[in-house]
Structure to design on (272 residues):
């Protein structure tokens, strides 16, 4: 498991440095070094211009998510929000605007370069109700029942210990608190080799969950009102170059892939 974490840390450390050096994270999306081109169909156009107005350009450039959790999560003034795997900080800064000066937005990330970038973006944005914490989403460095809403953007699929992540999310939420997360999800049976190749393309190093497993894991962790809403569905065409490079005949595998991998918005609530 620590091997996966080391690979993830190295990959996102490089992505952060690229943004700091003015190149943009774009060669290194969730799919990064293994799959040039994937980044476009996954990370492109997640935020509309109105939403990102006033944010530092580097925060927008560093966006490596697969959804837009703050657009879908209902955030209210005074709330405490926690972003699991906050990267360059875009969703934390957007949350901070929504919860206002009486609320607080925490970002949690394990990669030093990403934390440096996020803190620099916070400084440029001039916001005070934000704090970036160093740590792992499997061991959240916050007390029990201290958070109103957990958001995350394309990070839980990278973890090799999703049950622990969900248990930790449940622990830090207040009773009635909400889980409102974007993540890559799989629907239905897919032959193992194809699944592994598409996951490499998407960048899910330790495996995207099947939607019914995701629901079952959230329910086992204690969440209620669990649901998964697809926000962007991937087609075999999106991964054409990568999959044909791996020896797959696209016409043959299209029916096995199309519509089976999607970015979804995942909701749950800790019982009040
Ligand atoms: C795909 S990027 C997403 C960043 C951000 N959420 C966004 O939308 O731009 C994944 C981020 O999660 C962090 N990360 C991955 N696994 C983690 C873990 N187990 N604990 C803490 N951070 C993690 C990485 O360092 C990286 O910054």
């Amino acid at each position: 498991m620590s091997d996966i974490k080391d690979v993830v840390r190295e990959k996102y450390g490089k992505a952060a440095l690229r943004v700091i050096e003015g190149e943009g994270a774009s060669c290194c999306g969730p799919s990064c070094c293994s799959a040039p081109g994937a980044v476009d169909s996954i990370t492109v156009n997640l935020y509309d211009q109105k939403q990102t107005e006033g944010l530092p350009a580097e925060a927008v450039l560093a966006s490596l998510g697969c959804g837009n959790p703050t657009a879908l999560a209902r955030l209210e003034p005074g709330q405490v929000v926690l972003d699991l795997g906050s990267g360059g900080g875009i969703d934390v800064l957007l949350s901070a605007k929504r919860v206002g000066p009486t609320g607080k937005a925490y970002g949690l990330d394990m990669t030093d370069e990403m934390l440096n970038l996020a803190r620099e973006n916070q400084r440029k944005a001039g916001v005070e109700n934000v704090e970036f914490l160093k740590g792992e989403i499997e061991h959240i460095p916050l007390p029990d029942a201290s958070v109103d809403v957990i958001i995350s953007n394309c990070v839980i699929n990278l973890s090799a210990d999703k049950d622990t992540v969900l248990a930790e999310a449940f622990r830090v939420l207040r009773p009635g608190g909400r889980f409102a997360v974007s993540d890559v999800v799989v629907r239905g049976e897919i032959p193992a080799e194809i699944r592994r190749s598409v996951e490499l393309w998407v960048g899910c190093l330790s495996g995207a969950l099947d939607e019914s497993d995701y629901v079952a894991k959230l329910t086992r962790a204690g969440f209620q009102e669990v649901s998964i809403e697809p926000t962007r569905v991937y087609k075999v065409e999106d991964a054409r170059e990568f999959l044909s490079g791996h020896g797959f005949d696209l016409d043959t595998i299209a029916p096995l892939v199309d519509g089976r991998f999607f970015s979804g918005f995942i909701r749950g609530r800790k019982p009040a």
In short: The chain has a mean pLDDT of 90. The CA atoms of residues 188 and 233 lie 14 Å apart. The first strand starts at residue 80 and ends at 84.
